[in-house]
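Data card: per-record layout.
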Amino acid sequence: MSTSSIRQLIKYNSALHEIISVYLNILDSQQICAGKVLAYDAEYFCIENISKHGRFDGFSLRRICDVFRIDSQGSYENRLMKLNECYKNDNENILDNLSNFGENDNLLKKVLQLAKGHQTLVSILLDNSDDDDLTGAIYDIQGHDITMSKVNFYGQNDGLSVIQIKNIVAIDYNTDDEKSIKLLMEGSLLAGQ
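The structure for this 193-residue chain is written out next.
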């Protein structure tokens, strides 16, 4: 499937506000990102993650060129839609900031600015990497670089990193992983560690 076909499916499903399943790893078809497309541009799309239990699970920014398959209107997507409706879509107001996003805007920079403005933990995947390279809060955005205050898996401060924006492949924003690290971080702060 070509990138332009994928882009058209993303655009189409964005207008429908239906849950889709997006496959990003051709070697592991169990690794999917399911949810509703919130916004897209020529290079990236942003999806409101829905967990396998139908609950809101933050959102993810992914490159369109990394998608090899999209499923929609299947039994799995319908199951998630029904479960999600039962939870009344307990997502956060932060997603409203993406609702008026234009197709010609820079989605990557918009998500970075949202993360900085809301001081929310994000996990960033850099080009040519298989795992989340960095988790933390966006401290500063200057030109083509961001400065990130890193937090490790145990919620402890792990220094600062400066990253070139052009090397960012994906961002996970306020998913269960980041929420867990934030809880550990807050617990460490309360304990005086």
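Known properties of this structure: The chain has a mean pLDDT of 86. The CA atoms of residues 124 and 171 lie 5 Å apart.

See the next section for split statistics.
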